[in-house]
Amino acid sequence: MLDSRCPRLTWTTGSALNSQAYVAPRSSLEAVLAQIWAVLKIRRIGVHDDFFALGGHSLLATQVMSRIRSTFKVDLPVRCLFDTPTLEGLATALLCSRAQHVGPKCWPSCWKMLNAWIRMGSATA
After folding, report:
1. What range(s) does the Carrier domain occupy (predicted)?
2. pLDDT in tens, 65-119
3. DSSP assignment string, 26-52
4. Which of 10, 19, 25, 88 is most buried by a 10 A CB count?
5. Where do runs of H (alpha helix) occur along the chain?
6. CATH number for the domain that contains residue 99
7. How far apart (Å, rounded) are the C-alpha atoms in residues 8 and 58?
8. Distance separating alpha carbons of residues 69 and 97, to the nearest angstrom
9. Which DSSP state fits 4?
């Protein structure tokens, strides 16, 4: 018999664990990264959700970065996920790596590039 005083089990969404409101992936790149993050077994992952706050750890980080490497043909170090643990940050790192092939040194300029790209995309949507 089910005890009515026990709370019902529900799926946890990434944003429920994060203090920011849920923001869905805004680009196909962020959507693919969210699919790769499925190793976290979280149903809905927003662009501001932190990989480690959602239950990620070093072994899952290695698995995620391996999948990113095989999907995008870009060799980002695992450290990248520790430095930028959100979909938004990781998408920026990927864009930067593909565009300039110089790694973390270019991230500040890539944040500007990504924000401009997002604004252009939302203006056409």
Report:
1. 23-98
2. 999 999 988 888 899 999 889 999 999 888 887 765 544 554 455 555 555 555 5
3. -SHHHHHHHHHGGGG--S---TT--TT
4. 88
5. 14-17, 28-36, 58-72, 79-83, 87-100, 107-124
6. 1.10.1200.10
7. 31
8. 12
9. T
